[in-house]
Amino acid sequence: NIVRRLLYLNVQHEKKEKLLLKSKIIPSSSKYSTLGCLLLQSLVKCNSDLLPSVLCEAYLALSAEEIISCCRDSGGSHVIQALIESKYVLSSTKWKFLSKIEDKFHVLCLDKFGNYIMESTFFSLNTADKKQFA
């Protein structure tokens, strides 16, 4: 999956374990590659016919646990937030993505990085969708 590969861009297995441990000890550090997160954010916001649709399929291929883990990470939350706020991603795709984790919304609301995801979701929806989301 391209999303997983970019999240761990230039991170060897040994370094991945160290980043994971560091992210548990120091709450503001990320277990993902900073460069990979920035690349994913930029690609989702890109005005292209092909890129956002290909990336959306890759995002939808992630499991609910991977999405929640990404949302609760300092770097990963920016990646998910960019997907939700992107003008070039269809609303139906955003709803499919959010429906995978809708039973974990309460967890995201209480998390210091996940609450930004919930805020950006609410503010990027139109009025009819806000009622459904609430």
Summarize the structure.
The protein has helices at 2-7, 13-25, 34-44, 51-60, 64-71, 76-85, 91-99, 105-110, 114-124, 127-133. The chain is an all-alpha fold and 134 residues long.
Describe the fold and architecture.
By secondary structure, the chain is mainly α. It is built from ten helices and no strands. Helix 3 packs parallel to helix 6, helix 5 crosses helix 6 and helix 6 runs parallel beside helix 9. The longest helix has 13 residues.
Order of helices and strands: HHHHHHHHHH
Q: Number of helical segments?
A: 10
CA-based gyration radius: 14 Å
Strand content: under 5%
Parts with pLDDT < 50 across at least 5 consecutive residues: none
| Computed structural class | mainly alpha
Number of β-strand runs: 0
Main sheet attributes: strand count, strand direction, barrel closure: none
N→C terminal distance: 31 Å
Average pLDDT level: 82
- Give the helix proportion (percent range): 55-70%
What would the principal axes of the Cα set say about the shape? globular
What does the secondary structure layout of this molecule look like, with pairings?
Blueprint: H1 2-7, H2 13-25, H3 34-44, H4 51-60, H5 64-71, H6 76-85, H7 91-99, H8 105-110, H9 114-124, H10 127-133
Helix pairs in contact: 3-6, 5-6, 6-9
Keywords:
134 residues
